[in-house]
Hints:
The chain is α/β, with parallel strands linked by helices.
Amino acid sequence: MKNLLLLLVLLPGSRQxxxxxxPPPASxxxxxxxxxxxxxxxxxxxxxxRRVSVYLxxxxxxxxxxxxxxxxxxxxxxxxxxxIFNQDGMKALLDQAIAEKQIRPLxxxxxxxxxxxxxxxxxxxxxxxxxxxFTAHELVTFIDGQxxxxxxxxxxxxxxxxxxxGGTLRLALQYPGNWxxxxxxxxxxxxxxxxxxxxxxxxxxxxxxxxxxLQSSHPAQSTVAVARAFSANxxxxxxxxxxxxxxxxxxxxxxxxxxxxxxxxxxxxLLPTHTAALRQLRALAFDWGAQDEVxxxxxxxxxxxxxxxxxxxxxxxxxxxxxxxxxxxxxDGRMFxxxxxxxxxxxxxxx
Length: 351
Protein backbone atom coordinates (compact mmCIF):
# COMPACT_ATOMS: atom_id res chain seq x y z
CA MET A 1 0.00 0.00 0.00
CA LYS A 2 2.85 2.34 0.86
CA ASN A 3 4.50 1.62 -2.48
CA LEU A 4 1.26 2.40 -4.33
CA LEU A 5 0.89 5.74 -2.54
CA LEU A 6 4.49 6.58 -3.31
CA LEU A 7 3.92 5.79 -6.98
CA LEU A 8 0.82 8.01 -7.12
CA VAL A 9 2.79 10.85 -5.57
CA LEU A 10 5.67 10.51 -8.00
CA LEU A 11 3.70 10.10 -11.23
CA PRO A 12 2.42 13.71 -11.58
CA GLY A 13 5.93 14.99 -11.00
CA SER A 14 7.25 12.57 -13.59
CA ARG A 15 4.73 13.79 -16.12
CA GLN A 16 5.63 17.40 -15.35
CA UNK A 17 9.33 16.63 -15.69
CA UNK A 18 8.69 14.98 -19.08
CA UNK A 19 6.69 18.00 -20.26
CA UNK A 20 9.37 20.41 -19.10
CA UNK A 21 12.21 18.59 -20.88
CA UNK A 22 10.37 17.87 -24.16
CA PRO A 23 12.27 19.54 -27.04
CA PRO A 24 10.56 22.51 -28.68
CA PRO A 25 9.18 22.01 -32.19
CA ALA A 26 11.96 22.34 -34.73
CA SER A 27 12.11 24.34 -37.93
CA UNK A 28 11.96 22.45 -41.21
CA UNK A 29 12.60 22.92 -44.90
CA UNK A 30 9.76 21.86 -47.19
CA UNK A 31 10.61 20.98 -50.78
CA UNK A 32 7.65 21.55 -53.07
CA UNK A 33 7.06 21.95 -56.82
CA UNK A 34 5.35 24.62 -58.84
CA UNK A 35 4.06 23.58 -62.28
CA UNK A 36 4.40 26.95 -63.95
CA UNK A 37 1.81 28.00 -66.47
CA UNK A 38 3.97 30.96 -67.47
CA UNK A 39 7.04 28.85 -68.29
CA UNK A 40 5.11 26.10 -70.07
CA UNK A 41 6.06 25.72 -73.73
CA UNK A 42 9.05 28.08 -73.66
CA UNK A 43 11.13 27.80 -76.87
CA UNK A 44 14.36 27.26 -74.94
CA UNK A 45 13.31 23.90 -73.54
CA UNK A 46 13.44 24.97 -69.90
CA UNK A 47 11.51 22.73 -67.51
CA UNK A 48 8.32 24.49 -66.34
CA UNK A 49 8.12 22.26 -63.23
CA ARG A 50 10.17 24.21 -60.71
CA ARG A 51 11.40 23.03 -57.35
CA VAL A 52 10.97 25.48 -54.46
CA SER A 53 12.58 25.09 -51.01
CA VAL A 54 10.68 26.74 -48.16
CA TYR A 55 12.01 27.33 -44.65
CA LEU A 56 9.30 27.13 -42.00
CA UNK A 57 10.36 28.42 -38.56
CA UNK A 58 10.08 26.44 -35.34
CA UNK A 59 6.53 26.62 -34.07
CA UNK A 60 4.95 26.87 -37.52
CA UNK A 61 3.07 23.58 -37.07
CA UNK A 62 2.24 24.14 -33.40
CA UNK A 63 0.48 27.48 -33.94
CA UNK A 64 -1.86 26.94 -36.91
CA UNK A 65 -3.35 30.43 -36.72
CA UNK A 66 -0.08 32.33 -36.86
CA UNK A 67 1.00 33.90 -40.14
CA UNK A 68 4.48 34.99 -41.11
CA UNK A 69 6.25 37.48 -43.37
CA UNK A 70 8.18 36.01 -46.28
CA UNK A 71 11.71 36.61 -47.52
CA UNK A 72 12.29 35.51 -51.11
CA UNK A 73 15.95 34.65 -51.61
CA UNK A 74 17.39 34.35 -55.14
CA UNK A 75 20.39 32.08 -55.69
CA UNK A 76 23.41 32.71 -57.90
CA UNK A 77 24.51 31.47 -61.32
CA UNK A 78 24.91 27.64 -61.58
CA UNK A 79 23.59 27.37 -57.99
CA UNK A 80 20.11 26.29 -56.84
CA UNK A 81 17.75 26.13 -53.88
CA UNK A 82 19.00 22.75 -52.64
CA UNK A 83 22.61 23.98 -52.48
CA ILE A 84 21.53 27.10 -50.59
CA PHE A 85 20.18 24.92 -47.77
CA ASN A 86 22.37 21.82 -47.97
CA GLN A 87 25.77 23.33 -48.79
CA ASP A 88 25.53 26.97 -47.75
CA GLY A 89 23.75 26.08 -44.49
CA MET A 90 20.82 28.44 -44.77
CA LYS A 91 18.59 26.47 -42.37
CA ALA A 92 21.11 26.46 -39.52
CA LEU A 93 21.85 30.13 -40.15
CA LEU A 94 18.16 31.05 -39.93
CA ASP A 95 17.68 28.93 -36.80
CA GLN A 96 20.59 30.67 -35.11
CA ALA A 97 19.51 34.14 -36.23
CA ILE A 98 16.04 33.60 -34.78
CA ALA A 99 17.47 32.13 -31.56
CA GLU A 100 19.79 35.13 -31.16
CA LYS A 101 16.97 37.54 -32.05
CA GLN A 102 18.65 38.88 -35.15
CA ILE A 103 15.27 38.41 -36.76
CA ARG A 104 11.84 37.28 -35.65
CA PRO A 105 10.46 34.01 -37.06
CA LEU A 106 9.65 34.21 -40.78
CA UNK A 107 9.25 32.06 -43.88
CA UNK A 108 12.13 32.01 -46.38
CA UNK A 109 11.49 30.90 -49.97
CA UNK A 110 14.24 29.90 -52.41
CA UNK A 111 13.06 28.99 -55.95
CA UNK A 112 15.24 26.84 -58.19
CA UNK A 113 15.98 29.03 -61.21
CA UNK A 114 18.93 27.07 -62.49
CA UNK A 115 18.43 26.50 -66.22
CA UNK A 116 20.00 24.37 -68.95
CA UNK A 117 22.80 26.92 -69.21
CA UNK A 118 23.21 27.87 -65.57
CA UNK A 119 20.57 30.41 -64.64
CA UNK A 120 17.52 32.41 -65.68
CA UNK A 121 18.98 35.76 -64.57
CA UNK A 122 15.44 36.38 -63.29
CA UNK A 123 14.39 38.12 -66.51
CA UNK A 124 11.64 37.68 -69.06
CA UNK A 125 13.14 36.09 -72.15
CA UNK A 126 11.64 35.18 -75.52
CA UNK A 127 13.75 32.01 -75.40
CA UNK A 128 13.83 30.94 -71.74
CA UNK A 129 10.36 32.13 -70.82
CA UNK A 130 9.06 34.88 -68.50
CA UNK A 131 11.18 34.21 -65.40
CA UNK A 132 10.70 37.68 -63.96
CA UNK A 133 6.91 37.30 -64.07
CA PHE A 134 7.28 33.79 -62.70
CA THR A 135 9.29 35.05 -59.72
CA ALA A 136 7.39 38.22 -58.93
CA HIS A 137 3.84 36.97 -59.57
CA GLU A 138 3.36 33.25 -60.08
CA LEU A 139 5.74 32.15 -57.33
CA VAL A 140 4.37 34.68 -54.83
CA THR A 141 0.78 33.63 -55.54
CA PHE A 142 1.76 29.96 -55.16
CA ILE A 143 3.50 30.52 -51.82
CA ASP A 144 0.65 32.62 -50.45
CA GLY A 145 -1.74 29.81 -51.39
CA GLN A 146 0.34 26.98 -49.92
CA UNK A 147 1.68 28.47 -46.67
CA UNK A 148 0.48 30.72 -43.88
CA UNK A 149 2.01 33.95 -45.10
CA UNK A 150 1.13 37.54 -44.35
CA UNK A 151 0.07 37.91 -47.96
CA UNK A 152 0.74 41.58 -48.56
CA UNK A 153 3.63 43.67 -49.87
CA UNK A 154 4.46 45.10 -46.44
CA UNK A 155 5.38 41.62 -45.22
CA UNK A 156 7.34 40.58 -48.30
CA UNK A 157 11.10 41.00 -48.75
CA UNK A 158 13.47 40.24 -51.63
CA UNK A 159 17.17 39.37 -51.43
CA UNK A 160 19.75 37.44 -53.41
CA UNK A 161 23.43 36.91 -54.12
CA UNK A 162 25.39 37.40 -57.36
CA UNK A 163 22.98 36.55 -60.20
CA UNK A 164 20.33 36.66 -57.50
CA UNK A 165 21.60 40.03 -56.31
CA GLY A 166 21.28 41.44 -59.81
CA GLY A 167 17.85 39.84 -60.02
CA THR A 168 16.88 41.49 -56.74
CA LEU A 169 17.69 44.96 -58.06
CA ARG A 170 16.00 44.31 -61.39
CA LEU A 171 12.79 42.90 -59.89
CA ALA A 172 12.63 45.74 -57.38
CA LEU A 173 12.75 48.16 -60.32
CA GLN A 174 10.29 46.33 -62.55
CA TYR A 175 7.58 45.25 -60.09
CA PRO A 176 6.53 48.26 -58.01
CA GLY A 177 4.50 47.56 -54.91
CA ASN A 178 5.46 43.90 -54.76
CA TRP A 179 8.03 44.12 -51.97
CA UNK A 180 8.52 46.16 -48.82
CA UNK A 181 12.30 46.08 -48.97
CA UNK A 182 15.15 44.66 -51.07
CA UNK A 183 18.76 43.73 -50.28
CA UNK A 184 21.24 42.65 -52.98
CA UNK A 185 24.47 40.84 -52.12
CA UNK A 186 27.32 41.20 -54.65
CA UNK A 187 24.85 41.94 -57.47
CA UNK A 188 26.03 40.75 -60.88
CA UNK A 189 25.36 42.76 -64.06
CA UNK A 190 24.23 45.82 -62.09
CA UNK A 191 25.61 47.93 -64.93
CA UNK A 192 27.81 47.67 -68.05
CA UNK A 193 31.50 46.92 -67.78
CA UNK A 194 34.20 45.90 -70.29
CA UNK A 195 34.95 42.68 -68.39
CA UNK A 196 31.74 41.05 -69.61
CA UNK A 197 30.93 43.09 -72.71
CA UNK A 198 31.36 40.68 -74.41
CA UNK A 199 33.65 38.77 -72.04
CA UNK A 200 36.31 36.06 -72.42
CA UNK A 201 33.81 33.28 -73.08
CA UNK A 202 32.59 34.61 -76.40
CA UNK A 203 35.06 32.84 -78.76
CA UNK A 204 34.31 29.43 -77.23
CA UNK A 205 30.58 30.12 -77.28
CA UNK A 206 30.72 31.07 -80.96
CA UNK A 207 32.62 27.90 -81.86
CA UNK A 208 30.28 25.62 -79.90
CA UNK A 209 27.63 23.74 -81.88
CA UNK A 210 25.56 22.88 -78.81
CA UNK A 211 25.60 22.59 -75.01
CA UNK A 212 28.38 19.98 -75.06
CA UNK A 213 30.75 22.56 -76.48
CA LEU A 214 30.34 24.72 -73.36
CA GLN A 215 30.86 22.10 -70.67
CA SER A 216 34.55 22.77 -70.12
CA SER A 217 34.23 26.56 -70.13
CA HIS A 218 32.40 28.45 -67.38
CA PRO A 219 32.92 31.82 -69.17
CA ALA A 220 31.37 30.42 -72.36
CA GLN A 221 28.41 28.98 -70.45
CA SER A 222 27.93 32.35 -68.78
CA THR A 223 28.04 34.15 -72.14
CA VAL A 224 25.31 31.90 -73.54
CA ALA A 225 23.16 32.18 -70.41
CA VAL A 226 23.37 35.98 -70.46
CA ALA A 227 22.59 36.04 -74.18
CA ARG A 228 19.56 33.75 -73.76
CA ALA A 229 18.30 36.08 -71.06
CA PHE A 230 19.10 39.54 -72.47
CA SER A 231 19.51 39.12 -76.25
CA ALA A 232 17.15 36.21 -76.78
CA ASN A 233 16.26 35.11 -80.31
CA UNK A 234 14.42 31.77 -80.39
CA UNK A 235 15.26 31.32 -84.09
CA UNK A 236 19.01 31.77 -83.64
CA UNK A 237 20.97 28.53 -83.64
CA UNK A 238 22.33 26.77 -81.70
CA UNK A 239 21.45 28.60 -78.46
CA UNK A 240 18.30 30.63 -79.12
CA UNK A 241 20.14 33.90 -78.66
CA UNK A 242 21.98 36.60 -80.55
CA UNK A 243 25.54 36.25 -79.32
CA UNK A 244 27.46 39.53 -79.18
CA UNK A 245 29.94 38.59 -81.88
CA UNK A 246 30.65 36.52 -84.97
CA UNK A 247 33.59 34.48 -86.17
CA UNK A 248 35.32 35.20 -89.44
CA UNK A 249 37.96 33.06 -91.10
CA UNK A 250 40.66 34.38 -88.81
CA UNK A 251 39.02 37.05 -86.67
CA UNK A 252 36.31 37.81 -84.12
CA UNK A 253 33.85 40.62 -84.82
CA UNK A 254 31.69 42.28 -82.18
CA UNK A 255 27.95 42.64 -82.54
CA UNK A 256 27.13 45.81 -80.69
CA UNK A 257 23.38 45.44 -81.22
CA UNK A 258 23.36 42.39 -78.95
CA UNK A 259 25.57 44.11 -76.39
CA UNK A 260 23.24 47.11 -76.37
CA UNK A 261 20.40 44.79 -75.30
CA UNK A 262 22.58 43.47 -72.45
CA UNK A 263 23.28 47.02 -71.30
CA UNK A 264 19.62 48.03 -71.54
CA UNK A 265 18.67 45.23 -69.15
CA UNK A 266 20.98 46.31 -66.33
CA UNK A 267 19.53 48.03 -63.24
CA UNK A 268 21.67 51.09 -63.92
CA UNK A 269 20.04 51.66 -67.30
CA LEU A 270 16.57 50.68 -66.10
CA LEU A 271 16.75 53.19 -63.26
CA PRO A 272 15.85 56.46 -65.06
CA THR A 273 12.49 55.09 -66.21
CA HIS A 274 11.73 53.07 -63.07
CA THR A 275 12.50 55.44 -60.20
CA ALA A 276 8.89 55.38 -58.99
CA ALA A 277 9.19 51.68 -58.18
CA LEU A 278 12.18 52.21 -55.88
CA ARG A 279 10.49 55.14 -54.16
CA GLN A 280 7.75 52.73 -53.08
CA LEU A 281 10.23 50.57 -51.18
CA ARG A 282 10.66 51.16 -47.47
CA ALA A 283 14.37 50.42 -47.87
CA LEU A 284 16.92 49.40 -50.49
CA ALA A 285 20.41 48.12 -49.72
CA PHE A 286 23.25 46.34 -51.49
CA ASP A 287 26.85 45.50 -50.71
CA TRP A 288 29.91 43.90 -52.31
CA GLY A 289 33.40 42.71 -51.49
CA ALA A 290 36.27 44.99 -52.44
CA GLN A 291 38.26 41.94 -53.59
CA ASP A 292 35.44 40.36 -55.60
CA GLU A 293 36.90 38.08 -58.27
CA VAL A 294 33.99 38.96 -60.56
CA UNK A 295 35.70 42.13 -61.70
CA UNK A 296 32.70 44.08 -62.86
CA UNK A 297 30.84 43.95 -59.54
CA UNK A 298 32.69 46.58 -57.42
CA UNK A 299 32.78 49.34 -60.08
CA UNK A 300 29.22 48.77 -61.32
CA UNK A 301 27.88 48.78 -57.75
CA UNK A 302 29.62 52.08 -57.07
CA UNK A 303 28.18 53.55 -60.26
CA UNK A 304 24.69 52.30 -59.49
CA UNK A 305 24.87 53.90 -56.05
CA UNK A 306 25.93 57.18 -57.63
CA UNK A 307 23.00 57.03 -60.03
CA UNK A 308 20.60 56.30 -57.18
CA UNK A 309 21.96 59.32 -55.33
CA UNK A 310 21.60 61.47 -58.45
CA UNK A 311 17.92 60.53 -58.67
CA UNK A 312 17.42 61.09 -54.96
CA UNK A 313 16.67 57.43 -54.16
CA UNK A 314 17.41 56.63 -50.49
CA UNK A 315 19.57 53.53 -50.20
CA UNK A 316 22.48 51.93 -48.40
CA UNK A 317 25.52 50.80 -50.40
CA UNK A 318 28.54 49.31 -48.64
CA UNK A 319 31.88 47.97 -49.80
CA UNK A 320 33.58 45.59 -47.37
CA UNK A 321 36.81 43.59 -47.24
CA UNK A 322 35.99 40.29 -48.90
CA UNK A 323 35.70 38.27 -52.09
CA UNK A 324 32.64 37.16 -54.05
CA UNK A 325 31.53 34.56 -51.54
CA UNK A 326 33.89 34.79 -48.57
CA UNK A 327 31.61 36.69 -46.20
CA UNK A 328 28.07 35.82 -47.22
CA UNK A 329 26.86 32.93 -45.06
CA UNK A 330 27.85 31.89 -41.54
CA UNK A 331 27.50 33.67 -38.20
CA ASP A 332 29.96 36.42 -39.18
CA GLY A 333 28.67 36.76 -42.75
CA ARG A 334 26.64 39.50 -44.36
CA MET A 335 23.46 37.43 -44.35
CA PHE A 336 23.46 36.94 -40.58
CA UNK A 337 24.90 40.28 -39.53
CA UNK A 338 23.25 42.63 -42.04
CA UNK A 339 20.59 41.15 -44.30
CA UNK A 340 18.37 39.47 -41.70
CA UNK A 341 18.39 42.44 -39.28
CA UNK A 342 17.55 44.66 -42.25
CA UNK A 343 14.38 42.69 -42.95
CA UNK A 344 13.53 42.42 -39.26
CA UNK A 345 13.45 46.22 -39.28
CA UNK A 346 11.51 46.82 -42.48
CA UNK A 347 9.00 43.94 -42.79
CA UNK A 348 5.64 43.83 -41.03
CA UNK A 349 5.52 40.81 -38.71
CA UNK A 350 2.00 41.43 -37.37
CA UNK A 351 -1.34 40.96 -39.21
